[in-house]
Amino acid sequence: MLELDGITAGYDRRAPVLSGLSLAVADGEAVGLLGPSGCGKSTVARVAALLHRPYAGTVRLAGQPVHGFRFRAPRSQRTSVGLVFQQPRLAADPRMTLRQLIAAPAHATGRGDELASHVDELATRVGLTGDLLARRPHQVSDGQLQRACVARALLLTPRLLICDEMTAMLDASTTAALVAVVEEYRAAHGAALLAVGHDRVLLRRWCDRVLDFPGTPAAGHPDRVPAPSGGHSNRSASEPTARPSTSSTTQVKTS
Ligand SMILES: Nc1ncnc2c1ncn2[C@@H]1O[C@H](COP(=O)(O)OP(=O)(O)OP(=O)(O)O)[C@@H](O)[C@H]1O
């Protein structure tokens, strides 16, 4: 579904953040991308979501090479990817109500009427009902706003979801609820997932495969809780239960 091949990208050509990075996410697969703060995870997410043009390398979505990024990205490719950012407040227009925020991709693609009932259905699915939908971002909590952002990312039924530290600002129960929403969606639609983060335990529980950025401390690093091996006996009720912990961890390929 997603192929990044030899991606060099960043904010200064002389010192790119990513150099020759390659990774692939198969149709329906969930891949975690793990790395410390500042290593370039969000940059990978933005390139994969067609929001940031790489200096070199190829991005393919569903086998088709991407030739345009940001406003030059073809609509069919842009709408095949749903993106949830780490900080919902930076990703939400403060003038919009949560209902308008969820519906924004439908209006942007001229499908406002067609998808109106889907907005309500998704709002219910992420746990937002009643007066919350009429409130603006400053009138809701971070967790409630992130729920709206997840609903917005699912509205156009993307084939690939990119979650860039989606749960970094959330408590355990909201994390579990939103991971469950994403997994229900993936189960229903066969969508692929690229989940970016620094929580090895969460990513190993959530994803089929976890890739390490070069230089990321290994699972046994003293600063990190070792990932569970095999069963789920140490999982608390509030932790995500969406997928079996069958993932392995490998190093992401860079040149
Ligand atoms: N718009 C920008 N302009 C210049 N430099 C940037 C910009 N965005 C990010 N950077 C720099 O690029 C590097 C990688 O940033 P990125 O946000 O991809 O890292 P990250 O791994 O997602 O970090 P975190 O886990 O803290 O969110 C950092 O050194 C950052 O300072």
Automatic annotation (TrEMBL):
Residues 231-255 have a biased composition (Polar residues). Keywords: ATP-binding, Nucleotide-binding, Transport. InterPro entries: AAA+_ATPase, ABC_transp_ATP-bind, ABC_transporter-like_ATP-bd, P-loop_NTPase. Pfam families: ABC_tran. Residues 2-240 form the ABC transporter domain. Residues 216-255 are annotated as: Disordered. Transmembrane segments: none annotated. GO terms for molecular function: ATP binding. Belongs to the ABC transporter superfamily. This is ATP-binding cassette domain-containing protein. It comes from Streptomyces chisholmiae.
